Amino acid sequence: MRELRAAHWLFVAMSTPIRKLIAELFDPATTYEFEPATPRDIVRALELDAKFRELGIGLVDRMVAAVAERRRILRVLTTDRRDFSVLRIGKRFDKAPVLVP
After folding, report:
1. What is the percent of the chain with per-residue pLDDT over 90, rounded to a whole number?
2. pTM of the prediction?
3. Count of domains in the chain?
4. Which of 3, 15, 41, 72 could form a disulfide with 37, with the two C-beta atoms 3.0–4.6 Å apart?
């Protein structure tokens, strides 16, 4: 129940531009794809945490990176430039995500 309350609070607290972005992301007429995380993505997110622990990158950002890595997609739509600008993905942790917008 706590997670539901947190999700509700997050939605209420979102600004109008963020709400528009979310609506656009899930609009079937756009070219964005929503990709659910898999159990392997969770394991990879934990590996990313071990590699970049000192950076304090959050679980959600690590999950996004793991999904992008699995899909072999470097373009990441994010407003969190701080975390994603230093994060590296790939088998040798040598690929930097391309941040949009």
Report:
1. 20
2. 0.69
3. 1
4. 41
Residue type for 66, please?
Answer: A
Range of the domain at 25: 17-100
- Predicted confidence (pLDDT) at residue 13 exceeds the cutoff of 70: no
The 10 Å Cβ neighbour count of residue 84 is: 20
Residues 6 or more apart whose CB falls under 8 angstroms from that of 20 comprise: none
Distance CA 86, CA 1 (A): 34
Predicted confidence (pLDDT) per residue in 20-41, tens digit:
877 887 888 887 777 889 999 9
- Whether 64 maps to a domain, the answer reads yes
Dump the DSSP string for the chain: -HHHHHHHHHHHH--HHHHHHHHHHT-TTSS-------HHHHHHHHHHHHHSGGGT--HHHHHHHHHHHHHT--EEE-S-HHHHHH--BTTTT-BPPEEE-
In this prediction, residue 4 has a pLDDT band, given cuts at 50, 70 and 90, of low
5 falls within a domain? no
